């Protein structure tokens, strides 16, 4: 597994995100809050995705606040 320095990774992501935001230069597409039903469905979908990833072994808890995610690049 490839080791990544978190601080370097965060700097790269921040640089990319700032340049993307500057190039888009538009308002946020969502102005109204989500309705209650939509929030519930999205929360259930996220929980199912998380449970599926842990059950399949793609996501493993390494420490208190650390996780390991296996990604197939093929």
Secondary-structure map with pairings?
Layout: H1 6-24, H2 36-56, E1 59-61, E2 67-69
Antiparallel strand pairs: 1-2
Distinctive features:
2 helices, single chain, mainly alpha
Strand order, main sheet: write it out. 1-2
Described by strand count, sense and barrel closure, the largest sheet is: 2 strands, antiparallel
Helix content: 40-55%
Helical region count?
2
Which assembly state applies to the chains in this document?
Answer: single chain
What portion of the residues fall into strands of 2 or more residues?
A: 5-15%
Order of helices and strands: HHEE
- Please tell me the overall pLDDT: 81
Backbone CA Rg: 17 Å
Number of strands: 2
Structure description:
This protein is mostly helical and 74 residues long. The protein has two helices and two strands. The protein is flat and about 40 Å long. 0% of the residues are buried.
Concise overview:
By secondary structure, the protein is mainly alpha-helical. The chain has a domain at 35-74. The protein has helices at residues 6-24, 36-56, and strands spanning 59-61, 67-69.
